[in-house]
Specification:
Number of strands: 0
Structural class: mainly alpha
Number of helices: 11
Radius of gyration: 29 Å
Oligomer: single chain
Strand content: under 5%
Shape: elongated
Helix content: 55-70%
Distance between the termini: 55 Å
Order of helices and strands: HHHHHHHHHHH
Largest sheet: none
Length: 367
Amino acid sequence: MVVVNPVARLRSSSRTPFLQVVKTAVAVVAAVLLCRVLIDGPFPTFAAIAALLVVQPSINQSFVKGLERSAGVVLGVVLATGFHLLLGDTVWVVLLVIVLAILIAWALRLTPTSATQVGISGMLVLTAGVVTPNYSADRILETVLGAVVALIVNAVIVPPVLLGPAHLAVARLARDTAAAFERVAIGLTEGWDAERWHEALLQARALRQQHARAEASLTAARESLTMNPRGGRHRTVLDEDIVVAEHLRVLVTRVTGMTRAIQDNTAPDLRADPVVGSIATEVARIGADVRALSARVAAKEVPVSTAGAPRPRSSATVTPQHDEDVVEPALTAPLEVIRPNSRHWILIGALLEDIRRVREELLGEDD
């Protein structure tokens, strides 16, 4: 029985970038000092809280957090102020406002940040605001100022660009997809048994999770470039990576299907079929073309500010462009089988169809 240490759950598997820690500290200090200058009153707690929450890994996330918190504060303050004017500030009024805030947030489908803030703001207005003049207006102003300061700090001090990890994930996916096609070619040539094909299938299936992780990295990169003043020169690179990842999605599906078909239909005499040898040659060429794609992706460098990850280059298809170092695709014309093998014709037909579809994907041909 494995005993899980509950204290271990308090720690994250990775550290927050130190730069984000510095930006959060700067945002809190700046927000507090600005509020002390503009607002005459006690320590601007809500400006500090807003600054702490709004500094996020991306500027777009900071903007969203700022909107969520500001909207929750405004709604909660308005709700509490209205009930205070009508019913006073007794304990029952406070409880009523909290319950109504929860129900309103649910009815409006507010995000967790906004939903929580509505109830907290309403409660604080009725408990602390009744003895503090202009408490409601000051609280809204503090929150907005804290959120705006945090957003500006996050945008001005080295705004994050997460393109490097995403590009590296795409390059690795291309490399491993090429290896999967090469395994199929080797297995057909050497006449692997069902057990070895099962191992190859497991490796091919793992590409799906790898592709999902690459897509998640691309999503994070896109998020980091939204509203980012440094995003202009990086968006083209990201768009190219997204195109390559979409092509790889199709190739991963094909190589997994090919491996599964061979595992389910392999036989001792499969290797002896002459058509199978030709198919192995074509699959090896596919592997070479995908590996060349991986090399072209990895050879392009992204700017140093994005953690030094390689920069990709692609077009609407993954066909090599007119660069001096481009190698023409190794794929030949589709194979033709005049007389199918009576024992293996189903498998051969399935593999030929997969090769045809892969060819179209690599060369950008229409169906």
